[in-house]
Amino acid sequence: MIKNTEPTKDSVIIYSGGLDSTTLLYEERERVALAVTFDYGSNHAAREIACARWHCEHLGIEHIVIDLAFIGKYFDSSLTAGADAIPEGNYDDENMRSTVVPFRNGIMLSVACGLAESRGLKRVLIANHGGDHAIYPDCRPEFVKAMDSAMTAGTYEGVKLAAPYTDITKGDIVKKGTALGIDYGKTYSCYRGKKHHCGRCGTCQERKEAFKEAGIIDPTNYED
Predict the structure, then answer these.
(1) Res. 83: pLDDT tops 90
(2) What backbone torsions phi and psi does residue 154 show, to the nearest 5 degrees?
(3) Does the structure show a pLDDT above 90 at 176?
(4) Distances (CA, A) of 102 to 93, 106, 191
(5) Which of 31, 33, 89, 119 has a beta carbon 3.0–4.6 Å from 93's, enabling a disulfide?
(6) Tens digit of pLDDT for each residue in 119-174?
(7) Please, what's the largest Cα pairwise distance for the chain?
(8) Residue 1 falls within a domain, yes or no?
(9) Is the backbone of residue 3 left (phi > 0), alpha (psi -120 to 50) or beta?
């Protein structure tokens, strides 16, 4: 009897179309049954969604977009207040706190967990990383651990949360993705959401630093 050696498609990935989640998508592509992008009205949503669709089509992975417009309507964050509201600087600067979307990952993980349970899937993947810890509470190890426990306890199937990049840098992620052959020119990160990355907001600065740390040429088009 020949055993089936095909990997089990057992996972939902929260997929923005940015650098980090694209890397995780490719790294886990043999197990990803569904990629879900959440549109909460951010300045850069349309460009990220376009990138997410491209990569999912390229890999033959089902992709859906879920509207979370209530976040942009009721939550306070510069990410949903227009390009001019986005501060310049690094993530460890105090003014970058305005880019926090309160409990965003908690909300998205809850929806993704429900999707996983509905489809009989066992895991939810998220691509938070070590560089997020300084400014985003819902990217930190203690949050990941707590959400994993809540998801497992709150589902019949015991859905698990996998966040494999929690303790590594964005530079480490770039190295992983480059080894996987990812075209990072087809990812988008800038908080301002214009045609080209501004090069000055926190996520642009971090993107630049990641390629420099990895020793890899940055394919991103920046305004500056």
Answers:
(1) no
(2) -95, 10
(3) yes
(4) 18, 9, 16
(5) 89
(6) 999 999 999 998 766 678 888 999 999 999 999 999 998 999 999 999 999 999 99
(7) 63
(8) no
(9) beta
**pLDDT tens digits along 23-47:** 999 999 999 999 999 999 888 899 9
Contact 69, 101 (CB under 8 A): no
The token pair at 13 is 């990935």
- Cβ contacts of residue 223 below 8 Å, gap of 6+? 194, 196, 197, 198, 199, 200
The answer to whether residues 84 and 50 touch, using CB atoms and an 8 Å cutoff, is no
Q: pLDDT tens-digit profile of 96-119?
A: 666 677 788 999 999 999 999 999
> Tokens 């967990």 belong to which residue?
113
Q: Tally Cβ neighbours within 10 Å of residue 28.
A: 18
Contact (Cβ atoms closer than 8 angstroms) between residue 3 and residue 25: no
* Structural domains counted in the chain: 1
DSSP-assigned letter for residue 80: G
CATH of the domain at 203: 3.40.50.620
Is 143 a member of any domain?
Answer: yes
SS3 per residue for 97-131: HHHCCCCHHHHHHHHHHHHHHHHCCCEEECCCCHH
pTM here is 0.91
DSSP 8-38: P--EEEE--SSHHHHHHHHHTTTTEEEEEEE
pLDDT band at 82 (very low <50, low <70, confident <90, very high): low
Backbone dihedral region of 82: left (phi > 0), alpha (psi from -120 to 50 degrees) or beta? left
Let me know if residue 39 belongs to a domain: yes
Is residue 189, in this structure, part of any structural domain at all? yes
The parent domain of residue 47 ranges over 11-214
